[in-house]
């Protein structure tokens, strides 16, 4: 009987302490409740691994790596095959002022770049080096109104003059030439690697003076999305 009274007295004291903790010191009351709750884990050794503190840093590193992977995947299809005479160069972004007529490249005189050399994208001629700086160079693209060069058209190699601009065309084609839509246009002028494809004929018409045939072109790329090119060294 005495044992039971003693047990009840102790239980009563604990209940009073718990009630007082809840109302006057909530944090202590919470601790008492946690101690009295089976499986609460309070008072037990912490199960957190020492490396858990490094989790945020690891997540940041993973995100940085994912960003790098995204960059490489973006340009992977645009990267040309390595060649001793082909210098790879990245195109600087000039957003929002994207100019179709020129590209600023991250290779310059320190890399052996010289003016007049051909600039290629996926094996196609898209321009030539116009200005060279120490670490960069400026390429004039075929969409520049000042870009002209002799070309040949189709399997019969009809002569023509490439005239750059927002909508490049081939002029000075002989009226007797059998140029048709789908014919490939390729470089045939001095200073350029012979035979580099430039574009494809989309339609033909007669020149304003009725002396020649003209051809409009289509291209299998968007010049504003080109991110990496090759410079044909020694061309």
Summarize the structure.
The protein contains three helices and twelve strands, in the order αααββββββββββββ. By secondary structure, the chain is an alpha+beta fold. The chain folds into two domains: 2-36; 80-235, Rod shape-determining protein MreC, domain 1 (Thrombin, subunit H).
3D architecture notes:
By secondary structure, this protein is α+β, with helices and mostly antiparallel strands. The chain is 24% helix and 30% strand. The chain folds into 2 domains: 2-36; 80-235, Beta Barrel (Thrombin, subunit H), CATH 2.40.10.340. The protein has 3 helices and 12 strands, in the order H-H-H-E-E-E-E-E-E-E-E-E-E-E-E. The strands form 2 sheets. It has a 6-stranded antiparallel beta sheet with strand order 1-12-3-4-5-2, with no helix packed on it. Strand 7 (158-163) and strand 8 form a beta hairpin. Helix 1 (2-24) crosses helix 2 (26-36). It is elongated and about 115 Å long. The termini are far apart. The model is unreliable at 40-48 (pLDDT under 50).
* CATH topology (level 3) name of the largest domain: Thrombin, subunit H
Low-confidence stretches: 40-48
CATH architecture of the largest domain: Beta Barrel
The side-by-side strand order for the widest beta sheet comes to 1-12-3-4-5-2
Rg measurement, Å: 37 Å
* Count, helices: 3
Largest sheet composition: 6 strands, antiparallel
Q: Helices and strands: which structural class?
A: alpha+beta
Total domains? 2
Shape: elongated
CATH superfamily of the largest domain: Rod shape-determining protein MreC, domain 1
Strand proportion, as a percent range, falls in 25-35%
> Average pLDDT value?
80
- Multimer state: single chain
Distance between the termini: 110 Å
H/E element sequence: HHHEEEEEEEEEEEE
The percent of residues in helical segments reads: 10-25%
Number of strands: 12
């Amino acid at each position: 009987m005495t044992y039971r009274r003693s047990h009840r007295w102790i239980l009563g004291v604990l209940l009073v302490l718990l009630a007082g903790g809840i109302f006057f010191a909530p944090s202590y009351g919470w601790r008492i409740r946690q101690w009295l709750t089976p499986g609460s884990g309070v008072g037990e050794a912490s199960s957190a691994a020492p490396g858990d503190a490094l989790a945020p840093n690891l997540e940041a590193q993973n995100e940085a790596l994912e960003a790098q992977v995204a960059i490489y995947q973006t340009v992977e299809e645009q990267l040309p095959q390595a060649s001793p005479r082909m210098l790879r160069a990245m195109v600087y972004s000039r957003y929002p002022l994207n100019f179709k007529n020129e590209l600023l490249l991250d290779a310059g005189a320190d890399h052996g770049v010289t003016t007049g050399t051909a600039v290629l994208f996926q094996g196609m001629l898209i321009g030539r080096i116009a200005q060279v700086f120490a670490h960069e160079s400026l390429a004039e693209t075929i969409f520049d109104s000042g870009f002209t060069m002799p070309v040949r058209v189709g399997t019969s190699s009809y002569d023509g003059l490439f005239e750059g601009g927002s909508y490049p065309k081939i002029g000075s084609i002989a009226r007797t030439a059998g140029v048709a839509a789908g014919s490939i246009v390729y470089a045939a002028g001095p200073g350029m690697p012979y035979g580099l494809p430039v574009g494809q004929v989309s339609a033909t018409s007669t020149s304003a003076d009725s002396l020649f045939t003209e051809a409009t072109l289509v291209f299998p790329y968007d010049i504003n999305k080109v991110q990496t090119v090759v410079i044909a060294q020694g061309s």
